[in-house]
Amino acid sequence: MKKLISVFLCMGLLAACNSESTKKDAASDTAKTEASQTNTSSTASEAVPASSPVVEQTNNQPTTIDPALKNEVEQQVQAMQKHLPIKMNGMDITSVKVDGNALHYSLTYNSKDITSKQVPVEQLKRNLLMLCGQPDTKRFIHGGYDFKYTYHFQDKTQVDVAISAKDCV
């Protein structure tokens, strides 16, 4: 669990720190982000349907999730859920769950000054791709799991970003 929390602490710090620099570029990024945000749920094109525990074979990714890995992931998620919300620099992890073959994290920005129009999906994804270098992230992704992140903003909008094995090459 400590590994998962540290990974998401790093991810949260990156996203929060980069949102400050994004404010300066918000006007030029508005057109790009409007297509990927809504007041309800929007899903990144990379998202994999969460209803099936079977995944497509991609980049030597297994066709099924190893039961030992599945058990480990479920135990870590359950342990992490006991500590929710997890406060980070400017945002909170408010939900963590296993959704089929995906680990789904919901995060909430605490500041009303940060909106979905100021945090482009491309920037969030670039920040999250840094997690591909983390040993646990590599092991989970190459073991058949995808990662889904839903960022909630105080203006009631949200942005969804997904990472899969094809992103972590």
Rounded to an integer, what's the Rg over CA atoms?
A: 16 Å
User: What's the arrangement of strands in the largest beta sheet?
Assistant: 1-2-3-4-5
Order of helical and strand elements: HHEEEHHEE
How would you sum up the global shape? globular
Largest beta-sheet details: 5 strands, mixed
In percent, how much strand structure appears in the residues? 15-25%
State the end-to-end distance: 25 Å
Helix content percent band: 25-40%
Please indicate the count of domains: 1
Mean pLDDT: 74
Count of distinct strands: 5
Q: Identify the CATH architecture.
A: 2-Layer Sandwich
- How many helices? The count is 4
Please tag this protein with its features.
globular, 38% helix, GMP Synthetase, Chain A, domain 3, 169 residues
